[in-house]
Amino acid sequence: MSVPIVRTVAELRANVADWRREGSRIAVIPTMGALHEGHLSLVRAALEKADRVIVTLFVNPKQFNNAGDLAAYPRTEEADAGKLAPLGAHLLYAPDVHEMYPNGFATTVTVSGVSDGLCGAFRRGHFDGVATVVAKLLLQTGADLAFFGEKDFQQLHIVRRMAKDLDIPIDIVPCPTVRELDGLALSSRNVRLSPREREVAPKLASALFNAAERIAGGVPVDEVLAGAWSAIIEAGYSRVEYLEMRADEDLAPMHELDRPARLLVAAWLGETRLIDNVKVLSRTSIDNAPGERTKLSVTDATI
C-alpha cells in the first residue's frame, strides 16, 4: 500500500477536479514532513470530516531565519509516505522550491496584529513565510477544510486571520496538542535533543500546567509567571524567550484571568528551541488538568 505522490500544481488540481466531480469533501494538512504522531493525529481527524485528505510536504525556505536550520531540517519523504499510507490519506503533495516559488515570484503575505510578540518578536519574517506558503497551499488544493495543531498556537491564529482576510473559502480546524506520556509536546525538533536533554524537556510542560493551575486558583498572574520562568531555568533550560498569558480568542496580552486564556512559552534547551502552550482552566475543571498532560491533546503540523 502506498500513498500517491504528486509534485506539480497541475497534477494536484487534476486530482482535486476528479474528486469534485464525485462530490467529495476535501481536507488538507500542510506539513514540512518529518511526520510524527502529532501530524498523524491531524490525518485521522481529517479523515473523520472529509472524503479525501491531502497531506502537503514542503520544507519552506521562506520561514527559516537561519540557513543552517534550513539545511539541517530532516527530509524524510519516503518514511513520511510510509506512515501516511496505512491511515488512508489519499494524496501526498510534495512540490519542490521552484514549483512553489518560480522565477520572478514577488509576493509576500503579512498578517499584522496576531503575529506581533511571542514567536513573532524572536523570529523576524518567519510568519510572513508561513502565511505566504499556507495561502498558496490553500489556494492550490482548493480544500474545504485545513487542519492545524494547537501546539503552534500563534501560527494557528495567523492562518485563521489570513484565510478570513483573503476570503479563502476554507474552514480552519484546530486540533489539540499531542504529548508524550511524560508531557512533552510532540515536535520534529525533539529528535535533536540529547538523552540528557530529553529527560529535562518535559519540565517545560510541567511548569506550564502548574502555572495554569495556580492562576486558575487565584494566584496573581505576574507572580505565577515569574515563578514558572525560574522553574524552567532551574530545570535545566538555558534561556526562556517568552512566557506570557494571552487571550485564547485573539492573543491579546492578559494580566488577570477575566476570559479564556493560554499560557505560551518558548525556551532553549541546549541548541534546541522548544515551544508549548496550555489552556488556563476554570476552577471547576482544574481537576482534569493532570489527565490533559498525557492524553492526545499539536505543530511543528508544523508548517
**Total separate domains:** 2
Tally of alpha and pi helices: 12
Helices and strands, in order, run as EHEHEHHEHHHEHEHHHEEEH
CA-based shape:
globular
Backbone structural class: alpha/beta
CA-CA gap between termini? 26 Å
CATH topology of the largest domain: Rossmann fold
Just give the CATH class of the largest domain.
Answer: Alpha Beta
Corresponding CATH superfamily of the largest domain? HUPs
Taken as a percent bin, the fraction of beta residues is 15-25%
Strand runs, count: 9
Mean pLDDT: 93
**Largest sheet descriptor:** 6 strands, parallel
User: Nearest-angstrom radius of gyration?
Assistant: 19 Å
Describe the protein in words:
The protein is an alpha/beta fold and 303 residues long. The chain folds into two domains: 5-175, 3-Layer(aba) Sandwich (Rossmann fold); 188-294, 2-Layer Sandwich (Pantoate--beta-alanine Ligase, Chain: A,domain 2). The chain is 39% helix and 18% strand. The protein contains twelve helices and nine strands. The strands form two sheets. It has a six-stranded parallel β-sheet with strand order 1-4-3-2-5-6, sandwiched between helices. The chain has a three-stranded antiparallel β-sheet with strand order 7-8-9, covered by helices on one side. Helix 7 (126-141) crosses helix 8 (153-165) and helix 10 runs antiparallel to helix 11. The longest helix has 16 residues, at 126-141. The chain is globular, with a radius of gyration of 19 Å. Mean pLDDT is 93; it is low at 284-303.
